[in-house]
Amino acid sequence: MSASSSSANPKKKKVWIWTEKKEVMTAAVERGWNTFIFHSGRREIAAEWSSIALLYPLFIEETGIFDGEHIKIASFLEISSPGQLEKLEPLNEQAENIVVDLIDWKAIPAENIIAMIQGSKKTVFAISKTVSEAQMYLEALEHGLGGVVMKTEDVEAIFELKNYIDKRNDEGSVLELTKAVVTNIQMVGMGDRVCVDLCSIMKPSEGLLVGSFARGLFLVHSECLESNYISSRPFRVNAGPVHSYVAVPGGKTSYLSELKAGKEVLVVDQNGMQRTAIVGRVKIETRPLILVEAKSNEDSQTHYSSILLQNAETVALVSSFRGIPVTSLKIGDEILLRVQGGARHTGIEIQEFIVEK
């Protein structure tokens, strides 16, 4: 009984590699990147590597970047001043791709380039020497450049970049949520609950996936709605006590107690659309708690899940149509769950026998 099953992935970013280290080449190819850039005088390396791996080698020459048959694949520009940005203006005269080396420049020219090429079908790559630099180029003005050329001799940089790209590609994809029926509501006393304040604004129906057991995470609504009790705080989710699991990027979970400023979490809406948000602050305070238990049917099996939340009017679970405050929740109400494997090791799903209750 799935609440959503479609997918809407954003346009994926492209990665080309510039290296002369065989170990870096091997790591990149194993992670699905096979476009490599070489200086025109290093064709022997390209030939050697092409004999052991499936590569698409490109060569830098004075007027651009060419493939092995000397077909121009990209224009190549070095930009070190505002005036040189004007080289990008005659886009109709450029190749399909443009590779820029932003010498001594970082964020501002990347933003200017994005503004300049909007509406164009050109793909602009920026040469990056670190993963943090690549991330900045891919996120500038929210949309980012179309790709990066990772220039490195460090294998670890390939691992880190792949991890970042995988998380980014999850943006806008849809998690399958399951409808569940509330079977028990019970006051349980005091506990240390966690408010998660994000560096992002959440919209109605958005929240965090939280639960006492990783096998079933409840969609806990943000405090974005106005109420008679408190002003809207669209950056906050009153997520539950310190022991609870919360969904984070990469298909992993974290304990709420482990969250802190700078960590990342998954924000999900009622349709399962996910995005990554950064934690700006975490508040842990002792408050009265309520236990909510629910059951769902998935793959002809019945799944039982539970969550503890602060017993307050501003705390709500998400149904297919609205947020339901826990103070108004009734047995038989329908809410949304993320059903998944229950066994976890350091937040990563593993296959093993486990009993949790």
From TrEMBL:
Pfam families: DHQS (PF01959), DHQS_2nd (PF26558). Residues 180-357 form the 3-dehydroquinate synthase C-terminal domain. Coiled coil: none annotated. Residues 12-165 form the 3-dehydroquinate synthase N-terminal domain. InterPro entries: DHQS (IPR002812), DHQS/DOIS_N (IPR030960), DHQS_C (IPR056179). GO terms for biological process: amino acid biosynthetic process; aromatic amino acid family biosynthetic process. Keywords: Amino-acid biosynthesis, Aromatic amino acid biosynthesis. This is 3-dehydroquinate synthase. It comes from Castilleja foliolosa.
